[in-house]
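Batch manifest line 385
LIGAND: iron/sulfur cluster
JOB: complex structure
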Amino acid sequence: MRISYSTFDSYRNCPLKYKFREIDKIKEPKSKEAVFGTLIHAVLKYIHTPALLAPTIDQALDYFSKGWNSEVYENEMEERSAFSQGVTIIQNYLAHTKPNDYNIVNLESRFAIEIGDESTGKHIVSGIIDRIDKTEEGYEIIDYKTTRKMPSQDKVDNDIQLSIYLKAFLARYPKEIDHLDKITVSLYYVKHGVKLSSKRTQEQLDTLEKLFLEVIKSIEEEKFDPILSPLCDWCGYQNICPLWKHKFKETHTIESEDAEEAISEYLKLKSVIGEEKQKLGKLQTRILQYMEQEGVDRVFDDDGIIAKSLRKTYTYDAEKLRALLEPLDKWESVLKVDGIALRNILAVLPTETRTEVERAKVLDKESTSLSVKKNKIEVDEELSL
Ligand code: SF4
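JOB STATUS: finished
ARTIFACT:
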């Protein structure tokens, strides 16, 4: 199959969204962020396209204005704010960059590389690399980002997009494989004017192919479960997504009336309970201060007694416990899989082992819970159903 980096990324973020877009071919309205990002990329390409004289700030801004699309914005204020953001990005970029100082090898170059073999099937990964520079040290592969949020250095060091771009670069310049330490890969956050750079090892490039093959296999096996995430807020398929479509339900029937009342009452009650819990916490703090001040552990009122008690929880020193229990042949029976520890370990395991561990997963217990999301605070409540 043929998969682009962006569709690979889209599948990893939400397989169902991938299905809507790539398989069902349901058109998603272009988001204003995507339209804005595309235009900024076009302006940067214009700025760096080799010419006798590099464009001036005015020329770059003129290019930006001509490409502006006002249709995607909901109101004038929103549009004005986005436009001035674009102007600032271009002005700042050109204030700190002299286009002719760079030896640019390629701009927005398309690639298509083959991955896989007879056993996995051969596939094509495609994409577009924003910019490749020849540097004093070697080369630099740059991807522009127009998002505000910047990743940690650790994320940049493991960024799959940069790795696949490097692999595509090496397919074009195979001799450079011996100089990986001289090839820089960078994410350029134009809103901040900050470039985050990294290098890649041969080992990282080797595991990359497996990641793509895993995703391709899941697509071929038609695994398209939705993944709820903050990205849903920008998803154009909410109205048909099973996790969101109730939000768009317009017809209220007599049959659903009592359920709707239950939903409304449930949310109100949760809100009241939340407020009461906060009040309770404040009262507890005040009472504890008073007990401390009076040097007492119990306080009295006509309605009852409040007593202070100290609750201690213990954990065990695993090594000491093991030394004690192993000779007694009891160690194995106290071992149990610790979910959090396992999740932490999983992150550093090789892909193959991770897949094996995933396969070893068995359903232990199923319970139904309701959660309420309000003002970014999520409360989970187990229901005995
Ligand atoms: S709304 Fe969220 S879960 Fe549903 S398809 Fe879109 S990204 Fe996936």
